[in-house]
Amino acid sequence: MFGHFFIPFPDSTALMRTTGVGPQDNLWPDREKSFLGSILFPYSSKSKAIPIDTIKDLDLDRVIRSMLCNLSGFKLEHYFYELPCDVDTIEYRQAVFLDLADFDTFECLEVFSQKLGAILDGIAAAQRSGFALHAELRLLDYACKYVDLLTEASKNLFDHHTQSAALLGVKRYIRSICDGSEFVEFAKQAKELKSRLDQIEYTLLIREGTVKVEKYQGEGDYCKEVLDLFSRFSEGAAAVNAVSSSDLYGMNHVKAAILRLVSRVFSQEFRDLNQFHVSWPEFVDEKLVLFYRELAFYLVVQKKLNALTTLGNEFSIPEIYRGEGESIAKRNFDLALAIKLEEEGSSPVANDWWLQSNENVMVVTGLNHGGKTTFARAFGQLHYFAGLGCPVPAAKARLQAFEHLLTHFESEERPSLDLGRLAFDLSAAKAMLEKAGPDSILIFNEIFSSTSLKDAKFLGLELLKAISEKRARAVYVTFVDELAGAGPNVVSMAVSVEMENPERRLYTLARSAPTGKSYALMIAESYGLTRETLKVRLAR
User: Residue 171: in which H helix or E strand, if any?
Assistant: First the structure.
């Protein structure tokens, strides 16, 4: 049977993700004319780690998982655990997010990332192939895609309102690549070679268990006739293609053997193909690969914020200051709670707070389940994302740059609880104070709740005194109302109460004196003696 076939070389659009792909040697000296470094750590690779207990206390692990849930193949988690040490890097990152707040810019960079990711994935798959000729053909296809991507990006990718140093630097770098003589020669060779290979036509002669390949001489194409003959046995009415797109990538020993026969008939074309890969063994720029990986961090964060913004949650770029000063946040909310409520299409309650330059601690009091812990988490998340250089969960914020972000939340899962809860609380407080300084953020949630009211008051006053001496900024959640008046540098934040129904939770806090009922209500609730529970019991 004689058949007429064309070689349709790969044209992948898969959007998978892999790691560890990139050139090892710089074959492009013209690229050195325009420098491109890290877009996450542009000034220094030095970073500070956030303790894993802090990540869990602030529910940041839930936030990070949500941001990374649809991302396969990337290892981005470490970017969330390593915060920059300098304000300059924070502001550098903030400028990128300001650019990404423009929808067109975000969409263009996301498409660019997807296309470059598909190229890197295709190269990785080809390099793993056990069929050399097939791998060379696929690599040529990805080389042409790479040329097209950079050529398009140099003209159109940054035509939007790009202002950040990071994206302007990438723009200059890509243009320097495309203008370089080496890239121009590489693009010319790749396109010309692919055009020659695309024009190859051959015939297969299959007879008595043997296969022969010859140049196409105008013979009839019997593939269509054979397919038409067997189409009557097809269950569906859909047309049958001579060659399915999936077959173009599925290589087996039979196809590989036929491809070897084709390469012998068209020996010059395949010799040139081999020489092309000898000349250009690693054609993807390693600095663009780094940009691609680090850009993914910005994109996953911005994508999640875009989704939450549509539900009414507000984000902003905070003002960061060094040293002591006034801190303020408008409509600050718990980001982890916002993500939890995302499926319901609702948003959490937001709160305002501020600390003047002579104020160090916010003591938070009020009803149980009234929003105290949520407020403490929101305060910590706000500083964490500010330190990461990201938009923060607040409509407006001015925050102090910090060296340490330390937390202590009541938990049944702490392994150190074998020491006893009070001993564990004291040990944790001591460790936090040893690290704390004027540039530290401390959060204590229900510390000393296992002891008596008298002891909790005494220990709380001592701890607040130590925090003030360290001049650290802190949130102190407690059931001891008296601690809210511990000193002139202590601010009282109380859970708002509805006067007609004090037990109803509003989940808002205000800068006001304690209600004086939080401890009593906590005891009443623990014994089932609140107004509502008594009504139910008496009605039986």
Answer: helix 165-179
**What is the per-residue pLDDT across 303-330, written as a single tens digit (0 to 9) for each?**
999 999 999 999 999 999 998 899 999 9
pLDDT at 145: 96
Rounded (10°) angle between helices 87-100 and 286-309: 70
Burial class (CB in 10 A: 0-12, 13-18, 19+), 500: exposed
Rounded distance between C-alpha atoms, residue 317 and residue 388, angstroms: 11
State the Cα–Cα distance between residues 233 and 240, nearest whole angstrom.
11
Q: DSSP per residue over 342-403, as a string?
A: HTTT-----EEEEE-TT--EEEEE--TTSSHHHHHHHHHHHHHHHHHTS-BSSSEEEEE--S
- Indicate the residue type of 167: L
Whole-number Cα distances in Å, 506 to 140, 180, 194, 502: 63, 63, 67, 10
User: 136 pairs with which residues across the strands?
Assistant: none
Note whether 336 and 55 are within 8 A (CB): no
Side-by-side strand order, sheet with 327-332: 319-321, 396-400, 327-332, 351-355
Distant-in-sequence, close-in-space partners of 153: CB < 8 Å, separation ≥ 6: 112, 174
Strand arrangement of the beta sheet that strand 404-409 belongs to: 404-409, 440-445, 473-477, 361-365, 490-498, 501-510
pTM over 0.70: yes
Average pLDDT value over all residues in the chain: 84
Please give the Cα distance from 257 to 533 (Å, whole number).
Answer: 81
- Tokens matching residue 376: 């403490």
Give the whole-angstrom CA distance, residue 233 versus residue 230: 6
The span from the CA of 236 to the CA of 242, in Å, is: 16
157: Cα separation from own chain's centroid: 21
pLDDT of 22: 34
Dump pLDDT digits (tens) for 154-213: 988 776 678 999 999 999 999 999 999 999 999 999 999 999 999 988 888 888 778 888
Residues of the chain short of pLDDT 70, as ranges, are 1-35, 72-73, 159-160, 234-250, 412-419, 497-506, 515-527, 529-531, 534, 540
Exposed, middle or buried by CB within 10 Å (0-12, 13-18, 19+), for 208? exposed
* Helix and strand counts by DSSP (H, E) for the chain: 18, 15
Which residues are paired to 243 by β-bridges? none
Its sign, for the CA torsion 148, 151, 152, 157, is: positive
pLDDT at site 497 = 66
